[in-house]
Amino acid sequence: MDNLILRIAVPSPLHRSFDYLQPADADPAVLQPGIRLRIPFGRRTVIGVLLAVGNESEIDRQRLKPAQQVLDETPVISRDVMAMVQWASDYYHYPIGDAFSAALPALLRRGQQPLAAGASAWRITPAGQAIDTRTLSRAPRQAGVLALLGAHLQGVHRSAIDVPASVLRALADKGWIETCRLHEPHAEHSIVPSAHTLNPAQQLAVDAILAHMDRFTPFLLAGVTGSGKTEVYLELIETTLACEQQALLLVPEIGLTPQLLARFQRRFQVPLALLHSALTDHERLAAWQLARSGEAPIIIGTRSAIFTPMARPGLIVVDEEHDASLKQQDGFRYSARDLAVWRARQLNIPVVLGSATPSLESLLNVEQGRYRQLDLPERTGVAVQPTYRVLDVRKQPLEDGLSRPLLQRIREHLDAGNQVLLFLNRRGFAPTLMCYDCDWVAECKRCDARMTWHQHDQLLHCHHCGSQRPVDSICPKCQGSDLHPQGQGTERVEQALAAHFPDVKRVRIDRDTTRRKGELDRLLQQARHGEGRLLLGTQMLAKGHHFPNVTLVGILDADHGLFSTDFRASERMAQLIVQVAGRAGRHERPGEVIIQTCHPEHPLLQLLINQGYPAFARAALAERREARMPPATAMVLLRAEAPAAATAMGFLDAVAARINATGNRAVEVWGPVPATMERRAGRYRAQLVLQSEQRGELQRLLGSLVRQLETTKEARRVRWSVDVDPADTY
Ligand code: ADP
Ligand code: ZN
Ligand code: ZN
């Protein structure tokens, strides 16, 4: 019999797969798509994923090399994930091998074996129980594990034991601990019924979705903040578990809060597989394994969790489906939301996209009959929607970004014993340092961006490339010394608040105050339990949290989003305003939202305030149609960067010429233009926009373009990338 030919995805930046002969000693039965193989590639040996087995190759058999070694007896990647990664590699024009690398946990990428199913938990042995952990003072991590396992005699999942494998191995070698299979409790006994009776809108939504649990149906759950969307997810997941299936919940990067997890753990006493960016490689593999084996009936994760294989998939939920963090912004630029819908279709299961502020993309899908919209128009219980007030700050003297009327209202709400939340999406002390003599401003030497003054370390920081330098005391341009911080960051506002309200405990939440592990949780606790009464922060504070006693929300600067070059800026600003406003008055006490702006008459802002997000979204969608922008059309961004501006622009000019030469009338080409921030980290960036009302045409054109570019000389002088359905156009 002829040697089989293996088509393999090889980690490489090339937009193609590679053919190999089967390894000499391989059993053809194990050659299933989704297994990993060790293969020679150039002068290296790498690990690839088997895509298909056949008898033909475009390359002469004699020239094909045999694969060296089969690494798996059964596929590590499930069939639906295999198909999804291949589809996504095509759709996003990202090299297939690198796409698989993004989809696999790092340890598997490096050839490690996944743990045998069921072996992903550890328990203490009788010998281990007899050990006095005080005698282990020289091995504190071993002592910690023994204490943990001693407290949970039935065993603890590997993912919950925060030590490297070597520590566990050392303990196992002494016979003190052993692997075990966690008894999978029967679903019914492990679900704690909800404390709430669903309200009629929730019940309608749940019923509508439950009626379609056996087939692909995409739902948009549009529920105002605090309307009980999460409660709906929990209810649906309960049914999923009762049917012995698994549910996957995707959340934005900052949505995976201890609060959310606690809610799930209260309701479901089952293993949860958690996948997020802060995991160690071991933790990630362990969680991935729990999902793949089916041991964890619930998988909760951020963006990349969409690639997690599931043994018994039954439901996919995407929370905050509008959130930009669901789209990867570099490398493999996939949208986890869109992949979720694709995967659900392929698995023939329902998918629920939830949001208080749905994306225009999803609203258009509803309009065109592809998604079904379910509404939760009211807040649960007694909570009512907050009232909005637009504060024209052109006529107000601002003190460190705070207007007098806002300060007045803050005082009144605090005096009434309530909490106040202030939102400013800018960290640091001041967004720039300025010379009052000559108007010089401190700029980054590597980016077209201003340096942000941070007071805590007395340094100027660039938020784009991370460079730092001491705060200038003398103007480098005119040698004057009249240098002042301009504008406000959270650090500066906090100082101002300290001066105005010295006796009130403040909680500031932004990237700078939460760098240390556990700090975010600690600050959120203080905010939630009312210990901190003045809450101030960036979007880390704004989304998803429940602060029942917040009655006043102040949005310190709404203008940033209203006038930006990005076509999605006003949509994002509206979503942020609604999300931040949603933190107010979630309890009996009614909430008030004050928005400081220099453009109180802005039509979209007015529409949002007076008629709400749905009216805003309708108008914004109409504008996009008018302007023929996404989602009314398909858009692709070709980006290039190089050490010299002319190189990046020249490359894109050549690309534009290539496209125009095809004579394809269905695709419009705009640019190239330098990026809004042309220079970043010392490299010049430019972009070319491709747009079409026929997505298929655009995709075909890109497919051949990308293959051509791979082999052209000009492409080697730049770093270029394709961004399909870009989340931003900076
Ligand atoms: P969302 O996800 O839309 O922000 P949640 O599901 O978190 O809303 O619900 C908001 C609050 O209302 C939570 O404290 C939740 O426990 C509570 N809640 C949800 N559904 C109900 C209900 N049917 N009856 C009473 N309280 C509810
Ligand atoms: Zn000067
Ligand atoms: Zn910089």
Indicate the topology.
Blueprint: E1 5-9, E2 18-21, E3 36-41, E4 44-54, E5 69-70, H1 79-91, H2 96-103, H3 106-109, E6 121-124, H4 126-129, H5 140-151, E7 156-157, H6 165-173, E8 177-180, H7 200-210, E9 218-223, H8 229-242, E10 246-250, H9 258-267, E11 272-275, H10 281-293, E12 298-301, E13 313-318, H11 336-347, E14 351-355, H12 360-367, E15 372-376, E16 387-392, E17 398-399, E18 402-403, H13 404-415, E19 419-423, E20 432-435, E21 452-454, E22 459-461, E23 468-470, E24 483-486, H14 490-500, E25 506-509, H15 519-528, E26 534-537, H16 539-542, E27 550-555, H17 559-562, H18 569-581, E28 592-597, H19 603-611, H20 613-627, E29 634-642, H21 645-661, E30 667-680, E31 683-692, H22 695-711, E32 719-724
This protein binds adenosine-5'-diphosphate (ADP) and zinc ion (ZN) (2 copies).
One zinc ion binds next to loops.
Question: Your description of this structure?
Answer:
The structure is a single chain. The protein has 730 residues and is α/β, with parallel strands linked by helices. Helices cover 32% and strands 22% of the residues. It has 22 helices and 32 strands. The strands form eight sheets. It has a seven-stranded parallel sheet with strand order 11-12-10-13-14-9-15, sandwiched between helices. A hairpin with a 6-residue loop joins strand 22 and strand 23 (468-470). Helix 1 crosses helix 11 (336-347) and helix 19 (603-611) runs antiparallel to helix 20. The mean pLDDT is 90. Adenosine-5'-diphosphate (ADP) binds at residues 196-199, 202, 223, 225-231, 380-381, 546.
